[in-house]
Design goal:
The protein is mainly alpha-helical. 69% of the residues lie in helices and 0% in strands. It has ten helices and no strands. The N and C termini lie far apart (72 Å).
């Protein structure tokens, strides 16, 4: 009896990620991924104890890839370009780059996440939240380093709470089809500068 080929967790995850990109979240099944990897179903379970674990990792990879493509997690202090230290410039770039990254996936992919079973959905949301915290930290860093923000605005708004609000509003605008976040950025300009 021949032995099955050795496979890594990373390879399995890459196959699942590519399948989700191509055919949507609904196409992620342990049997399907095992077949595509050329391994026994049990091999997949050695790395991912259940489908929810696999889906969670695919969702986390999606957000990490989108954020990496956007290149927006560096601290404001690391930026040498003065314009890049501007909160508004940073947020515009973040929205533009994330919109582009999200556009590489099927339009239904993000909607499909909400149709997952309760366990997969809970884990997927936790993975998303971890990535979102990184984005919020980048926005907060830019709030703190943007010298053009008025002293009155700095007194009125806590940087971390404002960053979370900005991110949620930006993400909502992008999902609603307004990648320019026109209303949000107009309000930010009036309230902060």
């Amino acid at each position: 009896m021949g032995s099955k080929p050795a496979i890594s967790r990373e390879t399995i995850l890459s196959v699942a990620y590519e399948r989700a990109q191509k055919d949507g979240m609904a196409s992620l099944g342990i049997r399907t991924i095992a077949n595509e990897c050329g391994v026994a179903i049990g091999t997949i379970y050695n790395y991912f104890p259940d489908k929810a674990s696999l889906v969670t990792e695919v969702v986390a990879r999606f957000w990490r890839a989108a954020i990496e493509e956007a290149g927006v997690l560096s601290n404001a202090e690391e930026s040498s370009d003065g314009a890049e230290k501007s909160l508004l410039a940073y947020c515009r770039r973040l929205a533009e780059e994330l919109s582009e990254s999200l556009g590489h996936f099927q339009a239904s992919w993000l909607r499909e996440i909400s149709t997952l079973d309760a366990r997969s959905l809970e884990r997927s949301r936790a993975a998303e939240e971890e990535c979102f915290r990184g984005i919020c930290a980048g926005v907060a860093s830019h709030i703190k380093s943007d010298a053009a923000i008025t002293p009155a605005a700095r007194e009125r708004f806590d940087a971390d709470h404002l960053a979370e609000f900005i991110w949620k509003a930006m993400f909502g605008s992008i999902k609603a089809g307004d990648p320019a976040c026109t209303t949000l950025f107009g309000l930010m300009e009036m309230a902060l500068y």
